[in-house]
Each structure stands twice: as structure tokens, then as C-alpha cells.
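so the lab meeting is tmrw and i was supposed to have these ready like two days ago... anyway. pasting both below. for each one the top line is the aa sequence and the line under it is the C-alpha cells. i havent really looked at them closely yet so no promises
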Amino acid sequence: MAEKFTDWLRERSEPNWTAVVEHPFTDALFDGSMPDEYMSSYLVQDYQFVDDFLALLGAAVARADRFSSRLALAGSIAVVTSEENTYFQRSFDALGIAEADRVGPELDPATVAFRDLMRDIKDNGSYAEILTVLTVAEWTYLEWAERAPSKPESFVHAEWIELHSNPDFESWVSWLREELDRIGADLDERERARCLRLFQQATQCEVDFFNAHWD
């Protein structure tokens, strides 16, 4: 049986892939030892990705090669603009984060780098390349969230894990992988190499983002 394209990409993105999935930041989320200061800075910076992530999903809808794919992508847009956005606002309130820091904080270099990648791929990337970046962003989060041994006491921690470890999110990540595997089957060597570089770059961005919020 031929190796799946997404497995091929992930295997060639080690050790950074495992560094994301098993990062000590996530372990602190699981066991309740995460300082509010770290969680606050992480969520404030992560929230700055929402607009660019939505735009990237929109670009995927525009470049998709079939109607069923557009429907699946549009469904994810609805989740980001509802459940996830509501979580951010409730968490900001609980953590006492000022409005100015929610909407216009000074951006960390790791945040800037990941936003630049999303914007570049939105403007210039093929459907395969957009899927590659989306898959890294969602698949890494599913894998680290699935490691949670139990539900933390704080809703800020618990719901962030639950947003990325539930049947709907698992189905979404499975769909992303299957879609990228489908598209990847028709790519030539140059296109596959381009996707690999992007997969590795996005994985590095995920590592850097966790590192930026962990001492």
C-alpha cells in the first residue's frame, strides 16, 4: 500500500512535529500548572491569527476543485466564527485581559512569522499549498490535545483542549488529511517538494509559537 502524502510530509518534519505535539506548554495545560501570565500571552497572540486563518480558509474555498470540498471548508469557517471566537472572549474576560490587548497587542516575532506565512500562501499559494498549511495548523493541535489524560479544572484550559479534541474536530482533521492526500496524488515532484517545504515551515512556526509563551 502506497504511503499517504500527509504521512510522508509529517515523517519528514521531525523532530519539530513531536516537539509541537509533546511541548511542555501543553503538559502544563493538562496538569493545571500553567501560569495565568503564560496563558494570557498565548491566547492574546493566538487570537491575532483568527482573521488570517479565516482568510486562508476563504482562499481554500475559492481554489478548491469541487463543490463538496467547498462545503467542508465553509463548515470550518462557521466553527471559527462561533464556538472558538466565543471561547476567546470568555477567556479574555476570565483572565482580565484589556480590550486594547485583545484587538491590537504588540505582536511577538513568532506570531508575525506565522501570519506572514498564512498571508503569503493565501495570496500566492495553490490549493495544495493552502491545504498543507491548514493541515499542519489543525493536525498538530489535534495530536497534542488528544494526549490530555484528564479534564483540567480551569475552563480556560479545559475548553481549549476540548475545542481541539472532540469528534467534530477529529472529523475535520481527517477530512483535511484525506483532501491533501487526494490532491497530493496528482502533484509532480516539484509541487510535492514545495508542499514539503511549507509543511516543515509551518511546523517550525508552531514550535516557535509555543516556545514564545513558555519559559
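ok protien two:
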Amino acid sequence: MTTEGALARLIRSSAEATPAAETERCDLCAAPVPEEHRHLYDTAAEEVRCACGPCSVLFADGGAGDGHYRLVPRRRIRLPRVDTEILGVPVGLVFFVPRSDGTVTAEGPSPAGAMRWEIDAAAWQRLTAACPQLATLEPDVEALLVNTVHGLDHHWIVPVDDCYRMIAVVRREWRGLSGGGRIWPAVERFFDDLTERP
């Protein structure tokens, strides 16, 4: 990921947690955007960008942009337990994103941002055979978000901007070498606040 765009601003602003945050702006036309706004995925830069209402409409249903920008969907689906151990990722707080080129990446939060691994394609195919809903993930813009830390059992299909919000929570709350006492309650609150939506 690069250090520019909506993702970087989201992580930076959450980490700094200043009371007087500057107004968010659409990354396409610079119009102010409300706190709740849509995002576009920039396929060339591999980052999420903020979009105002009118600009987001332009990219609905694969409209403008010739595939350069993709509107991040809004759906969230809570899944039954998904056995992600077959993917070989040794962390319990992670999200998996299928990519347009057929690869799948796993990303986990750290105090510095997201760490990324590439997932074995055959292992991902076995997982989607066991959980067919994963085959409906829109490449680049939706993810399987998992939290099995401390015995929790959260498995969600979410838009990628939810994943980046989770990374921002970790970065904001992390203290010292091990994360400190605030990080896991904050992560649990993040997952408790997720709600299903079509």
C-alpha cells in the first residue's frame, strides 16, 4: 500500500486522534464528504479513496473509470465458522482479499499498518468449496474478515473499507511492544459494532 489516499488518511487520523479533524474531501472532485460516505478502490494504486455522493454514483455498476476505480460495496454478511487454518496464516486477526488477477492476499494489522501475505490458490479454492459464500466476494473490494483472538469466533464478508477501519483501530490503540491492555477490548468493540446489511 502507498502512503497516499483515503486509507493513509484514515489510519493517520485515527492514530493521531486529534479532536479537531479536518473535513474529509472527495478524492476525485474535492467536495466535502460527510462522515458516512462511500469509497472507491483505485486498482492502479491499490488503495481506497473517498467519494462524495455524485462521484460514487458515476462508478455504480462498473460505470465510469474504465475499471480504474471500483465502487466499494456496502454488504456485510456474518458467516458461520470458517476454517481458515488451511490457508496457513499464523494470526487470528486477519482479512483475506481475492484479487482481480486471481491471487488472494491475507492482511493483518500491526502498529505500523497492514502486513500482507499471498495465499496459496489451491488452499483458497478448498476453502471456497467448503464455504460457497466466499466465491461471491467481489475481487479487490470485498474481504473475508476473521477474528479468532482470545477464543472469539468472528467470520464476516465485509467491504474492504471495514478492514481498513479495523487496521486504524489497532494502530490507534497499540501501546508498547505487545499492544498493551487497550487494543483487544477496542477490537472486540469494533466487531460487536458490525451489523449485517445486504
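from a quick look at the 2nd one: Helices lie at 5-16, 53-58, 121-130, 160-173, 183-193. The two ends are 28 Å apart (CA to CA). will dig more after coffe
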